[in-house]
């Protein structure tokens, strides 16, 4: 009996480079197992594939150890934010208000 395979993509964008890897895994493979099978951990040694946040097509997967992949899935590995977007917007608004006050 031939084991059926599904083709998925694994993507990761580091600060300086990005990769898109195509991997064929057995049907029923979990997201985490597909990540490990892709070899992305060898390319980016700083990644902790057992705990890193991941998603499929932009939707965060809460339990990558039990969620099976589907054919054509694009598994995305997320890295931590360098700055809180809300804090950046708050600082930008404060700077604009300060500039407006100086110009009046």
How would you characterize this protein structure?
With 104 residues, the chain is of the alpha+beta class. The chain has a single domain (5-103), classed as Beta-grasp domain (Ubiquitin-like (UB roll), Roll). It is 30% helix and 27% strand. It is built from three helices and five strands, in the order ββααβββα. A five-stranded mixed β-sheet has the order 2-1-5-3-4, with helices on one face. The N and C termini lie far apart (79 Å). Pfam families: Ub-RnfH. InterPro entries: Mopterin_synth/thiamin_S_b, RnfH, RnfH_sf. This is UPF0125 protein SAMN04489801_1196. Belongs to the UPF0125 (RnfH) family.
Mean pLDDT: 89
Strand content: 25-35%
Poorly predicted runs are none
> What Rg, in angstroms, do the CA atoms define?
19 Å
Number of helices: 3
Count of folded domains: 1
User: How many angstroms separate the termini?
Assistant: 79 Å
Protein name: UPF0125 protein SAMN04489801_1196
Pfam families: Ub-RnfH
Family: Belongs to the UPF0125 (RnfH) family.
Organism: Pseudomonas mandelii
């Amino acid at each position: 009996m031939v084991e059926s395979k599904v083709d998925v993509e694994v993507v990761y964008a580091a600060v300086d480079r990005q990769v898109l890897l195509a991997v064929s895994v057995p049907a029923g493979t979990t997201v985490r197992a597909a990540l490990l099978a892709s070899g992305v951990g060898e390319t980016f040694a700083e990644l902790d594939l057992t705990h890193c946040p991941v998603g499929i097509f932009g939707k965060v997967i809460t339990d990558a150890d039990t969620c099976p992949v589907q054919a054509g899935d694009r598994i995305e590995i997320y890295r931590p934010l360098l700055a809180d977007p809300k804090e950046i917007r708050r600082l930008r608004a404060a700077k604009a208000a300060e500039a407006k006050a100086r110009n009046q």
